[in-house]
Amino acid sequence: MAADLSQLVKAYDVRGVVPDQWDETLAELFGAAFVQVVDASAIVIGHDMRPSSPGLSRAFARGAAAQGVDVTEIGLCSTDQLYYASGALNLPGAMFTASHNPAQYNGIKLCRAGAAPVGQDTGLTEIRELVERWTDTAAPAPVETQGTITRRETLDDYAAHLRGLVDLTSIRPLKVVVDAGNGMGGHTVPTVFAGLPLDLVPMYFELDGTFPNHEANPLDPANLVDLQKRVREESADLGIAFDGDADRCFVVDEHGDPVSPSAITALVAARELARNGGAGVIIHNLITSWSVPEVVKENGGTPVRTRVGHSFIKAEMAKSGAIFGGEHSAHYYFKDFWNADTGMLAALHVLAALGGQDGPLSGLVAAYDRYTGSGEINSTVADQADRLAAIRSAYEGQEGVTLDNLDGLTITTADWWFNVRPSNTEPLLRLNAEARDEATMTKVRDEVLAIIRA
Q1: Helix %, strand %, coil % for the chain, to 5?
Q2: Are the beta carbons of 80 and 333 closer than 8 angstroms?
Q3: Which residues, 6 or more positions from 298, have their beta carbon under 8 angstroms from its beta carbon?
Q4: Rounded to a whole number, what is the largest CA-CA distance in the chain?
């Protein structure tokens, strides 16, 4: 009977518990299916520090090579280092990681040559169908001429590429605390930061996929506590936290206070617009702050609003020729990085902006952080459609209120907005609200939560 991969193959990647939901046998089938769907003659593969990653990665390589495809293994890497290799070598790629998920999880992020995403609508569904069919019948027969599996180091070239996109040569010396969360930031940061005028204070740089100190998920405030404390103790200029596969970066200021990813999006957007002659398209998802499109317009750019999710961002970037894109979740996308997301490049922009002036980070980002946001609040509901309909009914027709359905339901007025989106994989509704002041945001947030949780 064919394996049911519905819980394993997500909208943008493969992710599940090892070995309960998948193992090296399935990984080998995924390797064969991937190269057939993307019609590759050669691919590049990397993996994170999870205990299961080397075995899964090598099994995937065997499956690809058995189909006559040459495989370049770059070994331990961050996800954006794999995207660099896919772009620089112009090869489809596979990254073995479960990002910020707990240790028992693992997954695969897939891309076509040039780091173009592979998601449900761009090949992942076909890959899943092939693997399911092969588990039901016979696995694909190996071809007569097997592909080769070779090793290549890319860390130095990746670091050089990033440093070539941001000028850090004339910044003032900065003291920066970096929490790698025992993830891949501990592998990439020392090389990327080497030779820069930075006093680096490393935290949890030891690669350990069991995450002995805290989860490598800086989106959860509990996982920033150690970094915030260390920044204050060290009297550092800032702190940076990376997630498990180091494709997202989170920033705290000199007081240890978190800097909103929307503020980072606005700051980097202003810098990228200046670097491109004061013009260009900037992508932002619909739950980033009002600050983002405002700053983009003030700096001569054109803001474009999209749905949440990297496949939507990357597709819109390719369509519009955008120079930069940002999400509330601290994913940052760059035209000069094959439209792929790289938290490390965003971190370099923050260091360059801070080191290029004399004030503290809190003062620098204040210009980009103009409103009060709720953050994302999840609520378990029995019927997502019913609760969305109740919210629509409560606000529709009110004077000065506009509604749109780009991604869930967004309600906007002159003084506040909120968005409610259903989760694709869980019985959840996700609320984000923002207003011109704290009292208004609190009032709106609580009103909407009362309807969601009624």
Answers
A1: 40, 25, 40
A2: no
A3: none
A4: 70
Tokens of 288: 């980033």
Round to whole Å and give the CA distance between 17 and 189: 28
Closest CA to 346 of 333, 359, 358, 357: 333
How sure is the predictor about 337, in pLDDT bands with cuts at 50, 70 and 90?
very high
Q: Which fold has domain 261-366?
A: Alpha-D-Glucose-1,6-Bisphosphate; Chain A, domain 3 (3.40.120)
Q: Which amino acid is at 271?
A: R
Domain boundaries, the chain: 14-153, 157-256, 261-366, 372-452
What DSSP assignment string belongs to 62-115?
A: HHHHTTT-EEEEEEE--HHHHHHHHHHHT--EEEE--TTS-TTEEEEEEEEGGG
* Residues classed as catalytic: 99
Q: How far apart are CA 194 and CA 127, in angstroms?
A: 40
The amino acid present at 178, given as its one-letter code, is V
Distance of CA 127 to the CA centre of its chain: 22
pLDDT band (50, 70, 90) for residue 1:
low
HEC profile of 239-302: EEEECCCCCCEEEECCCCCEECHHHHHHHHHHHHHHHCCCCCEEEEECCCCCHHHHHHHHCCCE
β 149-151/70-76 pair status: parallel
CATH fold, domain 14-153, is Alpha-D-Glucose-1,6-Bisphosphate; Chain A, domain 3 (3.40.120)
Residue 350 token pair? 């923050």
Q: Which of 175, 180, 182, 240 is nearest to 206 (CA)?
A: 182
Identify the weakest region by mean pLDDT among 27-31, 151-155, 234-238, 306-310. Answer: 306-310
Q: Note whether 388 and 409 are within 8 A (CB).
A: yes
Nearby residues of 85 by Cβ (< 8 Å), 6 or more positions away: 44, 46, 72, 74, 77, 91, 93, 152, 154, 158
Residue 139 has a pLDDT of 85
**How far apart (Å, rounded) are the C-alpha atoms in residues 35 and 10?**
19
Residue 368 reports pLDDT greater than 80: yes
Residue 223's pLDDT band, with cuts at 50, 70 and 90, is: very high
